[in-house]
Write a structure and sequence with these properties.
2 copies of one chain form a homodimer.
Chain A (H helix, E strand, L loop, with lengths): L17 H21 L5 H8 L3 H7 L3 H25 L3 H18 L1 H9 L8 H20 L9 H17 L5 H15 L14 H12 L1
Helix pairs in contact in A: 1-2, 1-4, 2-3, 4-5, 4-7, 5-7, 5-8, 5-9, 7-8, 8-9
Chain A binds a DNA duplex (30 and 30 nucleotides) through helix 1, helix 2 and helix 3.
DNA sequence: TCAGAAGTGGAACTGCCGTTCCGTATCATA
DNA sequence: TATGATACGGAACGGCAGTTCCACTTCTGA
């Protein structure tokens, strides 16, 4: 989380009041919970209720709903980045790959709003931009290393992998709240499909994150 | 399509006017277009505009937005069922399987609203229920036959297959409007993962449509 | 302890969008 | 062609949810 700066303009030369900061934290936590459960249609009033504050307090800290969503997304990106960096510590590139990409759909599933946001918006909040870049670098590393070690086939790119596992999250979400068994079934199947062996030829070229971004921008027209 | 009965109560002993019926068709077509592009957030007024009628006409034929959505979904189910039955004609069970399940994500992608509806609603419109059952029977046939012929592994069920390819549709939707190449890449990868060979063991049991339905109902609590 | 700055709650406001309503236009029947 | 039933368009309505506002409370620093 990046709670050091609030969206409300604090006059210079004075600290934000401690109760105010505590409330901000509560709102952020409540919002994460609500958006995870309800997706982006989760309501401000519900966030306020769960945080134990009034809607006014929510809206002072996050002047618009979009701002609130962005704050939540940023904190989610941070935790995902943490998992990626942790996986990169693993000496075995293939195992590192599996470790992270088994966790990825669970992450998506826990934060349904993330997927929706990615699907609907052209670009992410500027505040999350550096984070996001660090994350794509980490994912690219994971994939490239796994390929170098022969754990997965060479004709897929980092963004291919990322999209496929996002798809798994979506698929299991269709079946109901949280379905860890299904998720793992599908992750296994896809991992099997990613092994080198006598894999069938793929059309197109491996997709990296730069290309993926271009596609999304083109879509925005 | 099932245009024979309108939602508006036609007094007995009299035919619906032909212009009225034509308008109803136009509305349905426009709605299919709009919901495909915009998802369920597509607006009634836009549907009316594209159909070249007033909002009043839309709302007389489909008294509520939900009714309109259901009508569109029903017609989509029909066309999907048509494709499944066509694939079943194919003498080679493995090829039949591929033919249909390559087409499935494209179908999902063309009708984004379908996925959203499936994700959000507990159950489908009652009018679509028989259709839906016929469809699940056809899909089950395709999968069982493909397994019997050795084309795909035995530890997956028809609903597993269905969910996985819905996931592909979602994944490619994340990349932008329509991405046929990506879709095919991912379908190929998953098909590779479904082949028997030395596949890794899957947790859980093959999922059929009856179980899937139970899961969804449990989710509704 | 006290003054004033900072923050709070929630009622009121606002805009969006589905739905209703009714004066008018179109079609079917004789 | 005449007549009335049927259908039409689109303005007006109503409810929902995000945002604003301000009288009131809480905190901070002296």
């Amino acid at each position: 989380m990046l709670p050091l700066e609030s969206d409300i303009q604090t006059p210079p030369g004075r600290q934000q009041r401690v109760d105010a900061r505590r409330n901000r934290e509560r709102v952020l936590a409540a919002a994460e919970e609500v958006f995870a459960q309800e997706g982006l249609k989760g309501q401000i009033e519900e966030v306020a209720r769960r945080a134990g504050v009034g809607v006014g307090t929510v809206c002072r800290n996050f002047p618009t709903k979009q701002a609130l969503v962005e704050a939540v997304l940023t904190s989610m990106y941070e935790s995902l980045l943490g998992q990626a960096l942790e996986a990169l510590e693993h000496p075995d590139a293939g195992a590192a790959f599996e470790q992270f990409f088994v966790a990825l759909p669970e992450f998506h599933a826990r934060h349904r709003a993330l997927g929706e946001q990615m699907a609907n918006e052209l670009e992410l909040p500027t505040s999350a931009q550096p984070l996001r870049e660090e994350l794509t670098r980490a994912l690219t590393d994971l994939v490239v290393r796994a390929q170098a070690s022969g754990a997965i086939r060479n004709d897929i790119g980092p963004a291919d992998v990322s999209l496929l596992f996002a798809g798994v999250a979506h698929a299991t979400a269709l079946a109901g709240e949280v379905q860890p068994v299904l998720r793992e079934r599908y992750v296994r199947i896809i991992l099997d499909g990613m092994r080198p062996r006598e894999a069938s030829a793929l059309p197109g070229r491996p997709l990296d994150f730069a290309q993926l971004r271009k596609m999304k921008q083109r879509r925005a027209k």
